[in-house]
Design goal:
The complex is a heterotetramer.
Chain A lengths: L1 H17 L3 H24 L14 H27 L6 H19 L3 H19 L5 H34 L8 H6 L6 H19 L7 H8 L2 H54 L5 H22 L2 H31 L10 H4 L1 H14 L6 H15 L3 H26 L16 H19 L3 H14 L11 H4 L4
Helix pairs in contact in A: 1-2, 1-4, 2-3, 2-4, 3-4, 3-10, 3-12, 3-17, 3-18, 4-5, 4-10, 5-6, 5-10, 6-8, 6-9, 8-10, 9-11, 10-11, 10-12, 10-16, 11-12, 11-15, 11-16, 12-14, 12-15, 12-17, 12-18, 14-16, 14-17, 15-16, 15-17
Chain B lengths: L1 H20 L3 H13 L9 H11 L11 H17 L16 H22 L3 H32 L4 H5 L5 H4 L1 H18 L27 H23 L9 H25 L7 H21 L1
Chain D lengths: L1 H18 L3 H21 L6 H29 L11 H20 L12 H18 L3 H19 L8 H29 L13
Helix pairs in contact in D: 1-2, 1-4, 1-5, 2-3, 2-6, 3-7, 4-5, 5-6, 6-7
Classes of the chains: A mainly alpha, B mainly alpha, C mainly alpha, D mainly alpha.
Keywords (chain D): Cell membrane, Membrane, Transmembrane, Transmembrane helix
Protein name (chain D): Hydrogenase
Organism (chain D): Geothrix edaphica
Chain lengths: 492, 308, 645, 211
């Protein structure tokens, strides 16, 4: 099973590279997406806690993240054929290959039980996503690619050093290779504290760069701004999730070793900074894709903030991973449609989307409301409970800052969105032939629907998995005087 | 049974008759006083009765701009005045209708009358009447707090909310709260002059419309509607007069003595108004608000005295 | 309960058929909303007349504890205006909106959803359900405000509203999080005794006051309200002003009902805010030229009156004085109902004026009384009621609050009751002036511009809802005793002692008696006047102006000028007064307007400042790769050094 | 003895890297550094472990032959000789490099080594090399020099890796080397695209995207 998840996409990637007919190649993506999701579901049906010596395998956390990525990939894959048909001028051989390659490597990362292998997988995802960003083959996309590549590689290098530090921490503790996570967790108490801390700092900076935590996020607006919406969606929901997963694994070890408090402080600080930074750049943001990029920075901040708070907030941070990925995909893809229709993504030109592209316009508006925490969409649950968790565990300052930042971000983001969606299309803009078609909107509707369902209902097994994932990450129990979790949270 | 109810019935009848017949006398008295003070003989005291009789027989003229609202003013004014008159005791004889909180109803009935009068003035579309309406609205907004502060003070003193007991308080209101009472009455006299548009707030028989408040609002009324306007005005003189006279009056043992006292006091009030009018001139429009604020201060101070 | 749920469903579905039907979609929607109204009213009245309140549990994982819908007296009471106004608005919409714009089906759908959210909200008794309904309501209302998004003004108004409501919701996030933490559950539950006095209690009070204050339009959180109400379609404005604002009050009522022992200062704060909102609300209304903005400011004023009542009741609660408590709470609650009736009526008739003349500017209207008699009658009734004049409903609720305040004078050195008395008195007088101005400027005299001259009476389908609301106003005003038992039951929710002996108030009977007498007298006098023969077709005399025309009329601004000047210190009117000189001065213009203190003088400038600041910080994303790498390096160094140190 | 010598040489090469203005020289130093590190394991007398010998060979081939080959090709295409006006001057760069070295000593002081490890210079040296790499990345304009910086940064990491070389799984080691190679390879490709698009590899052209 585990191997299938990795090999199927990789082989498909090779196939896609070989196939010459663009249409045929385009349809490989959804096919593989469905296949991968199917295999994954079968595999998840039997997930269990893995033996300490296993090198590969799905545990709750990995399963959860991979499930999110797989669903996200399916949505983008079903959107892809119609989109690529709209871009006949661009050969998508490389694009399709890299997309599939990314899926395979993500599966590898999610199942890697050894920090080194996880790192290798992460690094390779960086490399395969570089060509994705360069899809448009113009100067701007080239610049974006270069920045992404350099910053990403540097970050990943730091992550490697951090991983080595942690390995050395184990080495000092008399723990010898192979150091699977499970073994590290079991013998966490023996790890050398200074090396562990240093290692965590380095991995945080490293994987944080990949996640796009401020101020390490600088590649993000450029990369997301210059790629097709489909790539943006996958980067924002997929690559970032991979990096987050890699970080969580290390965090779990650090927490198990009793350095949790230290790590939490860092995470909360990064979360706050990311949200604040994103806010500053969302104010009067005229480029809708850059706006979404900063929104992504914000939500990465929310994720680490929630983990840093721990307890209820940590669980809902994991939940937010899924919520954010789904809604972000809708945002990026609908923004892509709007971009297609106006041949621009800049504000003075893009107005009255509800009139020119009604479906995409409504989807964009609803997704915006969803991502900013409107019930009954999933992000509402996570954002409310993260705030509740923070306030409930006595992080009064953090909790209020969190809410204030959410408010500011809503203020900034809504101004642009309202301008884009409402009003009348500006006259001087030439009308492109693009029209909303089921092929370019149905996947989005499905995604939004999923976000809606997730907001009110969750299948039991999935809940159980989330529970396990949360407990495996968040080693320190939530403070005693916290919210009575059983009441407000998703029940196991 | 009947014997026991008889006094009450008689009292109510007398109350009704007073309200219906007496009012037009008061403007006559005022005018007479002013004339005598000015060394003229002046119109007969019953002049207003004659005027009303004549107007009732005259045809009315309506501008083409007016609607039914134009008539709502006079009608509402009189109706509200009559309704209010049932709530106020005349001297120490209890009012026909009396209940907890009738104070508020009393005040708001006059509000209603004012509202309709203003609207009927605006209905003509004339700039003068609009001006008068604006002034009426503005100044009454200042008179209102004085009235209510007075009520508040009395309510505090008598711990009652019914005009009957507040004004004609059986106990030692006049003796125990002499100071506050004087202040309240002073404030209310100002309200009285303003509400009845007398000098020094307004001059009822000036001939320069630019300076009028109340008179200018009824420029276009004629015939029966105008009769109602005039009667309503005199009714206001009576009812509000009862409001400020009652607390000042001593309580007599026999009902007839109370009535007598009330009528005498009423006459006295009319004469006093006449004296005021002939002894001082109208304020400049800009001074009027200050005058009314003085009334508010007086009543407010009275309330504070009640607190300590 | 079943009926109530059916009403919820009917309302939610009301707009759906219209999406596919080519014609008659509006009628179907109205029918469904009417059905919802009947069912819902049936359920609510059953509860209010002492019947058992049903409850219904939603069981989904994300709620944790099953989310409860409970139809208790409070819910039933707040449901009544929702259902009535929703139906009237929809019916009115048939004439007002249908066929005028392209987005009619969408509007209908969202309208139905809004009503459904409101119905859900009043009955919600679980934090997440409440927030769900709350946000749903806010967003639906936002979309309705945006109905005419072609105008830039509308877009601005909608955006401001969206931001304001979301800010309020975030306060509620915090408030409910704390609440759940203190009560230990996510269902609604009473706070433990003694908690109100602690810091947590204070925090809860402050957060709920802010969160619900934004929605209620309490000063100084009101700034979103005038533009939104002016921009929205009139039947939506009616619903927003009549019902949406009240949901803020509903929230406060719910919160106060959970607190067994509010500290004395809570009541004080409520009274102070009420006085502020009431007085400034009406004062700013005086300065407006836009009919709907004027009405919007009056909504703020009435929220102020309601807060005065709530404050009075709370004072009574903490002083242990059942009479104050009862009268205060009952007055506030009744005013909630009354305001939704007459403000709905006023907005509907204002909409009819807009519909007929195409303008909301008081200075361009006038003389509509002859052309639109029924509309003007409706507006008159509304003004009459909102000024609190007998014998209409507005008087009854204010009378209750007055009575409570007067009673409050009795105990000790309490200064608050007299504050309430004075505020009410002043508000009443100013409101009277303001509505004299509004009614006079719109309906009386001569049309000031062509806009008014060509006006025609609104269609029946628009007049009918107005008639219904007007009759309701009259009914409550003439026979207040009818509503008292129900009102008592609702007030009891706010405090066990409250609501007792409400029906025993002798005054109420007398009030209806006086009201009838008043009517009778008016009728008699009218009969006496009617036969007078009309002497020809004449102009207004006006001291001998031969041809009085519209340009000589007293304008709305000049009517209010005296008061606006008197209140200069509070209103800061912006006046453009030209210098007229020479014997033959050339044509010139005078204009004056009263900007909103919070929006135009505080919020907008500070926002501009923030934008400037952000623009300065933009250099951080300057595009140079080495700088970005430097960020990484610096972050790393800082963290390493911090770790070592 | 010998290891310490190599380490000292590595640190020297750091200084010369930041000091030189010639791109070709910089590349040579970087390669030299790579070879030195590649030989380290053998110098540390770990020749008995077969996989370590393999690793050493691999490292030397990648760092000493493959990567220089790529660089030379890129250099031919972009035909630049010297790094003109860097963001940070050479003398200042030297000072900063010295500062970084000092800082790395401080940091290393706070990271206790396992009892009985004789290579106390290893950790400070690796951190110093890391910072040097960063310095090059931050202070140089030419895309190529920045890649050199990245290479040096990787060297620093590799240097630390030697502490664990004994019991690090070969799989991981191989992965790391492979990544380094592929990374440089991809960067080379992108640089080539940049040259074609902007007919220059000066990163000043790459600052259009901003807020």
């Amino acid at each position: 099973m585990a191997w299938l998840l990795i090999l199927v996409p990789l082989l498909a990637a090779a196939l896609a590279f070989a196939v010459s007919s663009p249409t045929l190649r385009a349809w490989i993506l959804p096919a593989v997406g469905v296949l991968h999701l199917g295999i994954l579901l079968v595999a998840l049906a039997g997930w269990r806690t893995l033996p300490a010596t296993a090198w590969f395998g799905l545990d709750a956390l990995g399963g959860w993240v991979l499930l999110v990525i797989s669903v996200l990939f399916c949505i983008c894959a079903f959107y892809a054929p119609a989109y690529l048909a709209l871009r006949p001028e661009r050969d998508h051989r490389v694009l399709s290959t890299c997309l599939l390659g990314f899926l395979g490597l993500a599966s590898l990362l999610a199942q890697a039980r050894h920090p080194g292998i996880a790192w290798v997988a992460m690094e390779t995802t960086t490399l395969v996503s570089a060509p994705l960003i360069y899809f448009n083959h113009n100067r701007r996309s080239l610049e974006a690619t270069w920045k992404y590549l350099v910053i990403g590689s540097v970050g990943i290098a730091l992550a490697l050093l951090g991983t080595l530090f942690i390995a050395y921490a184990a080495h000092m503790g008399g723990l010898e290779e192979p150091l699977q996570y499970t073994r590290l967790m079991e013998n966490a108490s023996r790890l050398s504290r200074p090396w562990l801390r240093a290692g965590f700092v380095l991995t945080l900076v490293g994987y944080g760069t990949k996640m796009g935590l401020a101020p390490l996020h600088t590649w993000k607006p450029d990369a997301y701004g210059e790629t097709p919406g489909i790539v943006g969606a996958l980067l924002a929901g997929g690559v970032t999730s991979c990096a987050f997963l890699a970080l969580l694994r290390i965090y779990a070890v650090v927490g198990a070793a009793g350095e949790g408090a230290f790590a939490r402080e860092l995470l909360v600080a990064f979360g706050m900074l990311s949200m604040a930074w994103a806010l500053v750049f969302m104010i009067r943001q005229t480029d809708i894709k850059r706006l979404l990029a900063y929104s992504s920075v914000e939500h990465m901040g929310i994720l680490v903030f929630g983990i840093g708070i721990g307890g209820l907030a940590a669980k809902f941070a994991l939940f937010h991973l899924a919520a954010n990925a789904l809604v972000k995909s809708v945002l990026f893809l609908s923004a892509g449609n709007i971009h297609r229709s106006y041949a621009s993504k800049q504000l003075p030109f893009v107005t009255g989307a509800l009139r020119r592209t009604p479906v995409s316009g409504w989807l964009f508006l609803l997704a915006f409301l969803a991502i900013t925490g409107m019930p009954p969409f999933a992000p509402f649950l996570s954002e409310f409970n993260i705030a509740a968790g923070a306030l409930g565990t006595g992080h009064l300052l953090g909790g209020s800052a969190f809410l204030i930042l959410l408010g500011g971000i809503f203020l900034a983001m809504s101004e642009t969105v309202v301008k884009v969606v409402f009003g009348t299309p500006s006259a001087q803009r030439v009308r492109t032939p693009y029209k909303d078609a089921p092929a370019t909107t149905a996947p989005l509707i499905v995604a939004l629907g999923l976000a809606l369902i997730l907001g009110v209902w969750m299948p039991r097994p999935l809940q159980a998995m989330l529970e396990h994932a949360a407990t495996s990450v968040d080693r320190t129990p939530p403070p005693a005087e916290g919210l009575p979790s059983a009441r407000l949270e998703v029940r196991p | 049974m009947v014997r026991s109810l008889l006094p009450t019935i008689l009292q109510t009848l007398l109350h009704g008759l007073t309200v219906l017949l007496l009012p037009p006398l008061l403007p006559g008295l005022i005018a007479k006083t002013k004339a005598l003070m000015a060394g003229r003989q002046g119109p007969p005291v019953l002049q207003l009765y004659y005027d009303l009789a004549k107007l009732a027989r005259k045809r009315a003229v309506f501008s083409r701009t007016t609607t039914w609202v134009f008539l709502a003013g006079p009608v509402g004014g009189v109706a509200a005045g009559l309704a209010a008159s049932c709530l106020v005791p005349f001297g120490h004889t209890p009012a026909p209708v009396s209940f907890e909180g009738d104070v508020i109803l009393f005040a708001y009935l006059f509000g209603l009358a004012r509202f309709l009068t203003i609207l009927s003035a605006l209905d003509t579309g004339s700039s003068f009447e609009g001006m008068g309406a604006a002034r009426e609205a503005t100044f009454s907004a200042l008179a209102e707090p004085a009235l209510f502060l007075g009520f508040a003070a009395l309510a505090k003193a008598t711990s009652s909310l019914s005009l009957g007991t507040m004004l004609a308080f059986p106990g030692s209101l006049a003796t125990r709260f002499t100071g506050p009472l004087i202040l309240i009455l002073a404030g209310w006299v100002i309200v009285y002059l303003a509400e009845n548009s007398r000098i020094p707030v307004d001059d009822p028989n000036t001939h320069l419309e630019l300076t009028m408040i109340h008179e200018v609002m009824v420029l276009d009324h004629s015939g029966r509607p105008f009769a109602l306007v005039l009667y309503g005005a005199s009714l206001k003189l009576l009812v509000l007069g009862a409001l400020i006279l009652t607390p000042a009056l001593p309580r007599a043992t026999h009902a007839w003595q109370n009535w007598l006292a009330f009528y005498l006091a009423l006459g006295g009030l009319a004469v006093a108004v006449g004296l005021v009018e002939s002894s001082m001139a109208r304020f400049r429009m800009t001074k009027v608000p200050q005058f009314l604020v003085a009334g508010v201060l007086a009543t407010g101070f009275a309330f504070l005295l009640m607190l300590v | 309960m079943k009926l109530y749920l059916l009403a919820l469903l009917a309302a939610a579905a009301s707009g759906v058929p219209g999406l596919w039907m080519r014609r008659r979609g509006g009628e179907v929607a109205v029918g469904l909303l009417g059905l919802a109204g009947v069912l819902g009213l049936w359920a609510s009245l059953a509860v209010l007349s002492g019947g058992p309140g049903g409850s219904f549990a939603i069981r989904t994982a994300s709620l944790g504890t099953p989310g409860l819908l409970v139809v208790d007296p409070v819910a039933a009471f707040f449901a009544i205006p929702v259902l009535v106004l929703a139906f009237c608005g929809a019916l009115y919409g048939l004439g007002y909106w249908e066929g005028r714009r392209g987005n009619t089906p969408a509007l209908r759908l969202v309208y139905g959803l809004l009503v459904a959210c409101l119905v859900l909200l009043v009955a919600a008794s679980h934090i997440l359900v409440f927030l769900l309904a709350w946000e749903g309501m806010a967003i639906a209302a936002f979309l309705l405000v945006m109905a005419e998004d072609r105008e830039a003004e509308t877009r601005r108004a909608g955006w401001i509203y969206l931001v304001a409501t979301h800010t309020g919701t975030l306060f509620l996030f915090a408030a409910f999080a704390l609440l759940a933490r203190t009560t230990g559950q996510s269902g609604f539950a009473a706070l433990p005794a003694g908690l109100a006095a602690t810091g947590a209690g204070t925090a809860l009070f402050a957060l709920f006051l802010l969160g619900f204050g934004f929605k209620a339009g309490m000063l100084p959180l009101h700034f979103w309200l005038p533009p939104a109400h002016a921009a929205a379609p009139s039947h939506v404005s009616a619903l927003m002003s009549g019902v949406l604002l009240k949901m803020g009050i509903l929230g406060l009522v719910r919160f106060l009902s959970w607190v067994p022992d509010p500290p004395l200062w809570w009541g004080g704060v409520l009274v102070a805010l009420g006085a502020l909102s009431g007085l400034l609300g009406v004062a700013f209304a005086l300065g407006q030229h836009d009919l709907k903005r004027l009405l919007a400011y009056h909504s703020i004023e009435n929220i102020g009156i309601i807060l005065l009542g709530l404050g009075l009741g709370t004072l009574g609660k903490s002083l242990g004085n059942p009479v104050m408590q009862t009268l205060g709470y009952a007055g506030a609650l009744l005013h909630v109902l009354n305001h939704s009736l007459f403000k709905g009526l006023l907005f509907l008739s204002a909409g009819a004026v807009l519909h007929a003349t195409g303008t909301r500017d008081l200075e361009r209207l006038g003389g509509l009384g002859q052309r639109m008699p029924w509309t003007s009658g409706a507006f008159l009734v509304g003004s009459w009621a909102i000024c609190g004049l007998p014998p209409l409903n507005g008087f009854v609720s204010e009378w209750l609050i007055y009575l409570g305040a007067f009673r409050g004078l009795g105990l000790g050195r309490q200064a608050w009751p007299v504050v309430i008395l004075l505020s009410l008195a002043l508000i009443g007088a100013l409101a009277l002036a303001c509505f004299a101005k509004a009614f006079g400027a719109v309906f009386l005299g001569l049309p000031r511009t062509g806009a008014g001259a060509g006006a025609r009476e609104a269609p029946r389908v628009m007049l009918l809802p107005m008639g219904v609301l007007a009759l309701a106003c009259l009914a409550i005003g003439v026979a207040p005793l009818l509503v008292m038992p129900a009102l008592g039951r609702v007030a009891e929710a706010l405090g066990p002692a409250a609501g007792a002996g409400l029906s025993a108030l002798g005054g109420l009977g007398a009030i209806s008696g006086v009201a009838l007498a008043l009517g009778l007298l008016a009728l008699l006098l009218w009969r006496w006047l009617r036969p007078v023969p009309q002497a020809g077709d004449l102009p207004t005399w006006d001291c001998g102006y031969a041809a009085p025309d519209a340009r000589m009329e007293y304008t709305a601004s000049s009517f209010a000028d005296g008061l606006v000047r008197g209140l200069r210190w509070a209103l800061w009117p912006v006046v453009h007064r030209p210098r007229v000189s020479g014997w033959f001065p050339r044509l010139t213009r005078y204009e004056s307007h009263v900007p909103d203190p919070v929006l135009d003088r505080a919020a907008a400038p500070s926002l501009r400042l923030t934008v400037k600041g952000a623009a300065l910080l933009r250099v951080a994303q300057g595009g140079a790769l080495p700088v970005y790498l430097l960020y990484v390096l610096l972050t790393l160094l800082v963290l390493l050094v911090w770790m070592v140190a | 003895m010998l290891p310490d010598l190599l380490i000292a040489l590595t640190m020297l090469s750091n200084f010369s890297l930041v000091a030189t203005s010639r791109v070709a020289k910089a590349i040579q130093f970087a390669v030299l550094q790579g070879v030195l590190l590649g030989l380290m394991p053998l110098a540390m007398g770990l020749g008995r472990h077969f996989h370590i010998v393999l690793l050493a060979i691999a490292a030397v081939t990648v760092k000493g032959w493959l990567i220089p080959f790529l660089f030379r090709r890129a250099l031919k295409q972009v035909h630049i000789q010297r790094e003109v006006d860097p963001y940070i001057g050479y003398t200042v760069s030297l000072m900063l490099c010295a500062l970084g070295t000092g800082l790395s000593l401080v940091l290393a002081h706070n990271l206790p080594l396992k009892a009985g490890t004789e290579y106390t210079l290893l950790v400070p040296a690796s951190l110093a090399t890391l910072f040097t790499g960063f310095l090059l990345l931050v202070s140089r304009r030419k895309a190529l020099t920045q890649v050199v910086g990245y290479l040096v940064l990787e060297n620093g990491i590799y240097l630390f890796g030697l502490l664990l070389v004994e019991d690090m799984p070969a799989l991981v080691e191989a992965g790391i080397l492979l990544d380094l190679f592929v990374g440089i390879f991809v960067m080379g490709i992108v640089i080539n695209h940049i040259r074609v698009a902007f007919d220059s590899t000066d990163t000043r052209h790459l600052a259009e995207l901003k807020d």
